[in-house]
Design a protein that fits this description.
The structure is a homodimer. By secondary structure, chain A is mostly beta strands. Chain A is about 10% helix and about 35% strand. In chain A, the strands form seven sheets. Chain A has a six-stranded mixed beta sheet, with no helix packed on it. Chain A is globular, with a radius of gyration of 23 Å. At the A-B interface, strand 1 and helix 2 of A face strand 1 and helix 2 of B. Chains A, B: It catalyses: 4 L-ascorbate + O2 = 4 monodehydro-L-ascorbate radical + 2 H2O.
């Protein structure tokens, strides 16, 4: 409820600056007031304690126009927990302290505090926000950010209406139990999610075989008296499936984003083909799919025409990809108006490609080609990364054991979030910050890690430091897990930048051989890229955004177990950091 | 892991000052390093996530000698939660910022931070520490503080050995669920505890009738094959009952403290009478009891002689008092050496006075008479409060509804913990701090509160401000709950002071009539006093300790629902507050 005396003025300056620098003079301020609270929710019909914004999961949708300033005044009403909100995909030019990543950009917002995020949404597209402290994302702290084109710009495709769907996964154990389990000896893994959620709705343990349209509306009470009626879809408004009403014949822009804690997902719109037109906020050359892989941290826009038999409804469905799934299909209902939303689709839940068909995944990943001539106003000036890399990192991902704990590590360093945000630590020279190695030790992707690289893994809270404006190549090299013949799929996300995806490959990256295969002609710009099992992914970006930026596996459990690094650039060029972002760790107020 | 640069020096100065000012030149520094973590524990044989210090519940015992300086270097390894530790009964003369009460004395210690508490234990006695942020005490964050007499002082009673027992209650729901339930509409009360714990050990749902000494050692596996063997006492070392080994014929000093979240307890040492010799660290005229009421927040020392039939063992037992109990007796085993600890006492669980026999409770409460001539060195110089009160507060306790939420209120103000610690808010004049009313509105103890006082209840985060050195009388006046004929027992605890208990009474306090009945001859000094249902308790203290001090119901649920006030005195006389105690709310670092 209380606000640091200087913050009003500070934010006002930011806001005016943002408004002046926006390209459209009509750029608006989008103002939100949020309260973060615990809530008892039954998102998949099973009640648990979760974290909600204004009582909602997903939280309130942020709607803005490219160039607008978004202002979110957030009050933390959790009794003892801190909180931060990361604006995933928003680059925070000039406002790195509002990126909302604990240990990187700001101190946690303490219980009872009100903190105001103020930032410009620099590029139209589909984004989302989520908690970025401990495992608060898995507790339900997330929502959509929809950035539209300004009135004087036209989308390079036609649609009549738009729909947004946040996709996620859901556990019945609390985030505290999940996190402690991961940090136990032996570890208690979170396992596969109990449910998959579409717009925060799912059904626990509900096999579609048990349901029929006849039973759709039966309540639990009715079920107890009717042997044919299985309470698979009880009439609980909180966990009724999400309904997507469509008008037959119209074309829809579907904004999809995967905010899952763990799961790579495959999205299917039963009976409809989809035309993919945008990825992570970037226009791409349209292509058609019958099913779409979406890794945690990614977003897509797809077009579809409601041109199927209008006498029935259809499933929108998500299945787990990349892990042997035990979670039933997550289902929503595409309601062909004027059918009832309660008219259950007569078909079984849609089936996705086999979870381990990585050839299909890689093939789809390679299909993304930027659509030239659009977004030419974006920061990089051009779609093609002409500049050769000034610095190349090769980041080896391994499972390691440190003091008996199983950890994830990058070049044998397992990241531990520091108490002092690295942005402040750099800016005020508060401590010596270690720099992790640019390249891994000797390793063998096909061999157990103990044989080579991960003997000497250790904890670290450092950062890679880049020259401002430097072009950086990063090879994210998957390793071999502790179990034989095991390697995970890791979606890697970079804050504060979009990066070009130069290529994917299998096995060990060979610089001489593989860098020749890089796509330097038309690589797509993304903020999240999958690294396939036993494979590598190569990205390039320009370190042109002063700040400290997490680069990490977007699987929340993996980042909690150390799978991430920090990138720092041009921090000393930043003006004063806003006082409300400080106060923790080494940023205590010695002036009082 | 990180420490504010100036804090080493700051604490060093405190420490040297403390050492110099201690009466005994041999005063020592007792140094502890603690880590606060989540832990999966099975204190009553049912696993739950709890908060532990160095993996232990109760946490490590603090052992010190009167005049020693205790230094606790605490690292918060919780992923997202802040934490503080309150040193219950330690007055913190000169170190009010190390009192460990969130919203009063310091900012929460954030995740990853290391914070060092440094304070002098000013008076020999039995004390304890516990979390004082949200409901972290009920999560298991507590332990014992034992302060012994220095070598040149002699206890006014004889004993051969000493034993300490922390008594508490335990819920299977997490503290998050408990707290959210209390703040829900309709409220979900925490209900009676699942178990009572002695030194952190209990047995869930274990009726002693189901147990026999024969079955005591049977394991769950054996039980499954033996129809007579009930797995009431499974062989789980974590929840085996606490064992108190005694040598027949010896005299023991038993140090008892009730750190329960909710429960008033009655302690019984089966077959043994106990001689009560100390209450809340103050010597009292010894008297004998067969059972002892201990309210949450209180401590006692009792003597007993192990003079019973040595061929068997005996129960140490706690039962709930003051609330209609549903929780089985909490049991520990008094092991008469050389009997086996596994020799189960042959008798049923000891029975305490009826839960609602408040006449017995009041009679026992009136028995405490200070033992003159001891502790003459204490701060007040004399046991008898000669000074007449300079200020009198009458604090009415009511259940209220605010915006549909059920709250507890004091003079119609329901306390909400502020984001800025009041100590810093006063010291640096950071905001206007409201002062709640000294007296209640018109009320009727025997009528439903809606009829009179609690129509206009509101939230508040203010403080009563006293002149430094002023003598203050407080009448804590119990009210009528929202349900008919309902009034709770509330144990009220004052930080930073000991107070004289001037008297107890039934019904509405009448100043003219009842103040004449005050015991001004030999009132006992305490830090926690019960307020009986529909009754009042009168206390007096000297506001001579510069700082901000919570005065509140020690039932954690009640304080979480607003049943507390803050007392401030002489704050501007304090030197600089230690920077690590700041950084939250309005104490952000504007100098960086």
């Amino acid at each position: 409820m209380e606000m640091e005396l200087g913050v009003f003025f500070f934010n006002f300056v930011i806001l005016v600056f943002a408004a002046l620098s926006a390209r459209e003079v009509e750029a608006a301020v989008r103002y939100y007031e949020w309260s973060v609270d615990y809530a008892f929710v039954s998102l998949d019909c099973v009640e648990k304690l979760a974290m909600a914004i204004n009582g909602q999961i997903p939280g309130p949708r942020v709607d803005a126009v490219e160039g607008d300033t978004v202002v979110v005044k957030l009050t933390n009403n959790l009794p003892t927990e801190g909180v931060v909100i990361h604006w995933h995909g928003i680059r925070q030019f000039g406002t790195p302290y509002y990126d909302g990543a604990a240990s990187a950009s700001q101190c946690p917002i303490n219980s009872g505090e009100t903190f105001t995020y103020t930032f410009v949404v620099d590029q139209a597209g589909t984004y989302f926000y989520h908690g970025h402290f401990g495992m608060q994302r898995s507790a339900g702290l997330y929502g959509s950010i929809i950035v539209s084109l300004p009135a004087n710009k036209v989308e390079p495709f036609h649609y009549d209406e738009e729909i947004s769907l946040l996709l996620s996964d859901w556990w019945h154990k609390s985030m505290y139990e999940q996190e402690l389990g991961l940090h136990s000896i032996p570890p208690r893994y979170v396992g596969e999610p109990q449910s998959l959620l579409i717009e925060g709705r799912g059904k626990y343990n509900c096999s579609l075989d048990e349901c029929s349209s006849f039973h759709y509306n039966c309540t639990v009470d009715e079920c107890s008296t009717s042997p044919d009626c299985i309470p698979c879809w009880p009439s609980n408004p909180e966990c009724d499936p999400h309904v997507i009403p469509v008008h037959p014949g119209k074309t829809y822009r579907l904004r999809l984003a995967n905010v899952a804690s763990l799961s790579a997902l495959n999205f299917i719109l039963e009976g409809h083909t989809m035309t993919v037109v945008m990825a992570d906020g970037h226009y791409i050359e349209p292509f058609e799919v019958s099913n779409l892989d979406i890794y945690s941290g990614q977003s897509y826009c797809v077009l579809f025409n409601a041109n199927r038999n209008p006498s029935r409804n259809y499933w929108a469905a998500i299945n787990v990809r990349g892990r042997d799934p035990t979670t039933p299909t997550g289902l929503a209902i595409v309601q062909y108006l004027p059918n009832s939303a309660n008219l259950l689709p007569p078909s079984p839940a849609p089936v996705s490609p086999a979870w381990n068909d990585f050839a299909a995944s890689t093939a789809q990943a390679r299909k993304y080609v930027p659509r030239p001539g659009l977004h030419t106003e974006h920061r990089y000036g051009k779609v093609v990364p002409k500049r050769a890399a000034g610095r190349t990192l090769i980041l080896l991902l391994t499972q390691n054991k440190i003091d008996g704990y199983i950890k994830w590590a990058v070049n044998n360093v397992s990241f531990v979030p520091p108490a002092t945000p690295l942005l402040a630590a750099f800016k005020f020279n508060l401590k010596k910050i270690s720099s992790p190695p640019d390249t891994p030790p000797n390793f063998d992707v096909s061999a157990l890690p103990a044989a080579t690289a991960n003997i000497n893994a250790s904890y670290g809270s450092g950062a890679y430091v880049f020259k401002l404006g430097e072009t950086v190549d990063v090879i994210i090299q998957n390793g071999h897990n502790l179990n034989p013949d095991d390697s995970d799929l890791h979606p890697w996300h970079l804050h504060g930048h979009h990066f070009w995806v130069l290529g994917y490959g299998n096995g060990k990256f060979d610089s001489r051989r593989h860098s020749k295969s890089f796509n330097l002609i038309n690589p797509p710009l993304r903020n999240t890229v999958p690294v396939f099992p036993f494979g590598w992914s190569a990205i390039r970006f320009v370190a042109d955004n002063p700040g400290v930026w997490p680069f990490h596996c977007h699987i929340e459990e993996h980042f909690a177990m150390g799978m991430g690094v920090m990138f720092a650039e041009g921090v000393h060029q930043l003006p004063k950091l806003p006082p409300p972002t400080l106060g923790c760790g080494l940023t205590k107020p010695t002036h009082l």
